[in-house]
Here is the input.
Amino acid sequence: MFELVFLGTSASAPSIHRGLPSTLLLAGEHRFLLDCGEGTQRQLLRSGMGFKRLNRILLTHAHLDHILGLGGLISTFARWEDIENIEIWGGKVTLDRVQALLYGVVLDYERLPVQIHLLDIKPGQLMESKDFTVSAFPVVHRGQGNFGFIFQEKSRRPFLVEKAEALGVPAGPERSKLVKGERVTLTDGRVIEPDAVLGEVIPGVRLVYVGDTARTDNLAEHVSGADVLVIEATFLHDNEEEARSFGHITAREAALLARDNGVKTLLLNHVSRRYRERDIIDEVQRYFPQSFVARDLDHFVIRRDQPVQKGTAHGDERDDTEN
Here is the structure.
């Protein structure tokens, strides 16, 4: 299971209702911040999620609307929060800009109680936990070193207790080994194979997160079969040429990408304040009905083979007539 809390969903500049891009992803005890636009730390507080265990930041690219909030956030971490290590992942161009921001402006001449690790992203797997992996893939946008991210929950085979009991497998270490795929030998000498007590493979949830992108044709292999795709909707189809000139796609293109590649649910963010939200919804749902335009503090719960559940972080109330 993954959870997403959208902290900022605007494009380039904030609006009354939307802050600059930032999303919190929760995976068990792990937390990831995806991009960090201006105002992110306040949104973390408003969401009720706070700063606890928030020690991994993944940056899609180097543009200021996606990284400028790092200055205030890291300054707060350095002064007030009980966080010993922070990992900031990004392409080389992104990390160069982050280093200039943090060490040239925010943290200059300070002795930091927190260790900051700037980690250069290369396509492929970034990390692996007991339950999921995180991978990066290249994205075409203005400039170099732009990335999207895949959060892949590991597949599992349910342990069939009734079969284990019928075979006389005692509760304890033997069952734990079988769950791990290891054979066990019982006290009477019988050898029990994992297949005897494990059910069919249940695939894990696949969540794909794309920041700003100028193309979709190169994303198909990465988003294929995703339970959830998060991607920008900066422009509507009527402004397709303008979208190209700024290195963005349209809401219609995002919908077609999802439809043509077996995506189950589409979550759109990076919304330009030039448009009414209902116009974006109308355009995208014409091609892909299972779509949402995310708002600040929207909270989505993603489970395998269940509809995506949408709520609002920390009970924040907003006007549903928002433009």
Observations:
- Residues 2-156+201-315 form a domain with the Metallo-beta-lactamase; Chain A fold (CATH 3.60.15.10).
- The chain has two domains: 2-156+201-315, 161-196.
